[in-house]
Amino acid sequence: MENYLLIFRGGRQNPNQTQEELEAHMTKWGAWMNKLIENNQFVGGDPLENESNMLYKNNNGSIATDGPYPEGKELVGGYVMIKADNREKAIEIAKGCPIFEDEGTLELRKTASMEDHHK
Amino acid sequence: MDSNSNNIANRLDHLFRHETGKMISVISRIIGFDKIDEAEDIVQDTLLKAMQLWSMKGIPSNPEAWLYTVAKNKAIDNIRKNKNQVKYQSEVGELLYSEWSLIPTVDKMFLENEIQDSQLRLIFACCDKSLTIEYQIPLILKLIAGFSSKEISRALLIGEETVNKRIYRAKKKLAENNNSLKVPIGDEATERIHTVNRVIYLIFNEGYNATTGDRILRDDLCYEALRLVELITNHNAFNNDYSLSLSGLIKCHLSRMAARFGDDKNLITLDKQDRRKWDLELMNSGFIDLQKVQTRITNKYFLEASISATHCNAKSFEETDWGMIISVYDSLYLLEASPYILMNKYIALSYHKNPETAIELMLTLKELESYYLYNSSLSQLYSRTGNINKAIEYIEKAITMTENKQEIEQLTKKLKKLSN
Fold first, then answer.
1. What CA–CA distance (Å, rounded) separates B373 from A89?
2. Which chain A residue's Cα is nearest to B105?
3. Model pTM score
């Protein structure tokens, strides 16, 4: 079993959505998360608030905290850590994510073990 | 307090008592038994909020749901606040750290079937082998039956400070042992069920035999005991002859309870009870339980239940099968040679034969001479033989032997009647 990070980008709902749309959205995500939990694939993760601070080192050497801000479809909305036997299986799990119905994207990354860097 | 807020206070006491144990069970299962104090605090906060809001706005139409919703939210808030500082050792502990899984996990544990399961787990946890019975009983009464320390103190005839000390130490011991609210299996389960039965029996007796205090409170204890024993008997793996007998005992007693008290809140003796008030459905359910029991003669609960069932089977006081009752007392005496059993047997004998015979035998029970009930029973026996002087003598003795105000009141009433 290995840990894989699933990063959700974009797929933010229309701020003018109805209560019904919001509830449907929550139900979808809740159902998918529940499935991960029941299948013993869920390790952790959190949804993220929209407010984003972009930090970078500017010309005078100090650390600036004011942008450039990610665009809607680049904005990371949340992440989940799952566990799977291998990358292929992890990808299969990720394909079931509701982010795609929301017109967003998902990036899958495997956690690295530090030993790799000492070879 | 005006009658309306008094009414609300009574309803709340009843409701809170009923739900406290359930909520503590669920929340401690979510965050772990090692955090049982927090679970209790969350529940106490919930009840406090209910009291404050409901006394202003009235009791909501579904008060249980209201309580559970608030308790759930408080638990979630508590977890969010603490999750980075603590380690959750419960079965769902790992799922509490993520916002994706926190609410669904908590929601799931508050489902009806999970609530039942949680209570069983908590009962078993409290009956852990590492605790002696003096620690197990107060703990269960506090966490599961919703007793206050004061009430536990009265039930077990030990000081309130002792009660609090024992509960504190018991919790600490269980937390040390990393008690994870697992369900015991096999021999361990059988052993624990014995303790659980004993505690349930005690709870029931406190409610049934107490003649003092709030009537609603006392009834609640009886129904609480019924609820707890049904948790056991409804579970295939844990049901056994003792639990079934206890269930039968409680149901047979409870089925006749409505007839025990008059409109004036006074206790009505069995011979004068209106048997039309008996709950035949509950009674029948008790009989069904007892029919299933195979271990009988060595089963104290079954024997006591048979006495109650014998009364249940009598259409009138005069038709009571006293011979049967006497033989059951004989069987009980074989299990435990207690003078209290003899006293009850002799009283039954007074109806089976005559009060004179009973009086002769009662007078041999020297050990009970300072027991108020012994004296008041003798008074009644003498009264039935027409010996009013002796009846008065023994009632007066009885009054000096109890400090319980309500009992004194009732005995004094009897004295007045006799003196006229």
1. 75
2. A34
3. 0.79
